[in-house]
Amino acid sequence: SQKIEQNSEALNIQEGKTATLTCNYTNYSPAYLQWYRQDPGRGPVFLLLIRENEKEKRKERLKVTFDTTLKQSLFHITASQPADSATYLCARWGPGTASKLTFGTGTRLQVTL
Amino acid sequence: GAVVSQHPSRVICKSGTSVKIECRSLDFQATTMFWYRQFPKQSLMLMATSNEGSKATYEQGVEKDKFLINHASLTLSTLTVTSAHPEDSSFYICSALSGASTDTQYFGPGTRLTVL
Q1: Which of A15, A106, B21, B35 has the fewest CB atoms within 10 Å, measured from its CB?
Q2: Partner residue opposite B110 with nearest CB, options A34, A36, A43
């Protein structure tokens, strides 16, 4: 079956540190992966998209990498703040031209003072 | 830009009644809309994909007669949960694809359905 797994259900880090979240997938390699933030009781908010031919993408304090050999994407938040506390979801498109997203289970990030 | 709204944000209903949830793209035309369901501490599960003017495509295991989807215009899709039961209680989220950007889904804020 097509799986997309986020290894940590929860991650606790101190303010100012870099949070690193992992997303692993099986079977087919997606053309791209997406990362979303979800706050409790709210819909996901799109953060970043990285394509299979891109090794790394950045947006302000966020950085995403995509390793098609390892079938893994890493999501980094540098200089983390308590306001970054949320659940972060990775998602992949497909398979093929199928226009639908499959989401990972999410990692709940807690940034403490 | 790319704002998607849902109405209502939360609804409580009695078992056996039907509930309609609206999803609107406010500042763009959505060629395709998606409906997801999310149970507590679980990820989003795709229920169906709807394209304006055509029948929705349902994921395996989702009853199309129970979850009626209508995508009558490029800015509005509705999900009707018919004869709701307590096990249908969940967080329902819609998303929309714009014609301009076919690889990014914009999500609504979700609708919390509680069936008593």
Answers
A1: A15
A2: A43
